[in-house]
Amino acid sequence: xxxxVVVFKFHSASPSNSSFLLLLLQKEKLxxxxxxxxxxxxxxxxxxxQVLKKDGRRxxxxxxxxxxxxxxxxxxxxxxxxxxxxLDQSVSIIDALxxxxxxxxxxxxxxxxxxxxxxxxxAWDAVCPLVQTxxxxxDFSSQLENALPLLLRALCEEDPVQALERKxxxxxxxxxxxxxxxxxxxxxxxxxxxxxxxxxxxxxLSRMKMNxxxxxxxxVVSNEEANRMSLFYAYPTPILKTISDTTTKFVTDNNEIxxxxxxxCLGSMAEICRIxxxxxxxxxxxxxxxxxxxxxxxxxxxxxxxxxVDPMGAFHKKSQMIDVKACIKLLQASGHDDLENLxxxxxxxxxxxxxxxxxxxxKKMLNV
Length: 368
What we know:
Elements: E1 5-10, E2 19-24, E3 32-34, E4 39-41, H1 59-62, H2 77-87, H3 90-98, H4 104-112, H5 117-156, H6 160-166, H7 168-189, H8 193-210, H9 223-234, H10 238-253, H11 259-278, H12 280-283, H13 290-309, H14 324-334, H15 339-348, H16 360-365
Antiparallel strand pairs: 1-2, 3-4
Helix pairs in contact: 2-5, 2-7, 3-5, 3-7, 4-5, 5-7, 5-8, 5-10, 6-11, 7-10, 7-13, 8-9, 10-13, 11-13, 13-15
């Protein structure tokens, strides 16, 4: 067969504004694009970030997610407003977690003096407001669990790259959720007081109920709530598990949305983050120094979610959706303050890293 391509190039003030008009004769389902500088092959469905898009533009030149200034369009606004109600609480949640100091001293004294009723009461009075805070964290994770499917539907019900380009404000909110999730779980893992306080609360509550103590009336969460919260906090990364399970459930419950759209959205967004970090000309578009760090966390979160919902996973040697090796190299070269936490997230919260199909080089890079 013969493929003829005629390329017209219109020059403008800057190379990024140049456009190409392509006439393409197709045979045997092969698409062949030729410009003056490069030759590209169109990939299969879902492998969107490896090649030219359908209109001939390179994603790394044209796809920019404005994580700093994106504002919702009229189309986005209904979903955006619903998500904003949830996200507006995230700053106070992080602040409360950073300030969480625990009741370690009061608990130690109560355990050391089991017959001292005053010390028992002091420990109980110290723990109860802390458990109320832990309940607020748990309740917020439930709000994220309910909000995430709204975003996934809005971003995945059409061509992923087109959705990300056109729905920048929703993509920004998705990124903000992922950033929050990784930050929350990092702080939670670094604070053993959370588990200690909650374990003490549950033990004391059980003892009070057995003794029919009056203190049961002052409990801040019921026994059933405490059981659910205990399962939640038992995971090292509880909110990451919540959104991973939510995303997996979204795939199962929404058969009308092609799986390729969902993996395409997650994979494309991860690659866009990588490109925005890696390409100096693009990175310079950001004005806030913290945005690069933000992109790194978001990229890791997207790799994790992709690995949970894609049948082959993110690390499979035949998977070309995300250049995981390049992502890891980029993280390792960044000197990110939370580098080890980000690498640990990839090591311990992904699903397929230890599969036999994961290249040895990637396992070596992550020391697994």
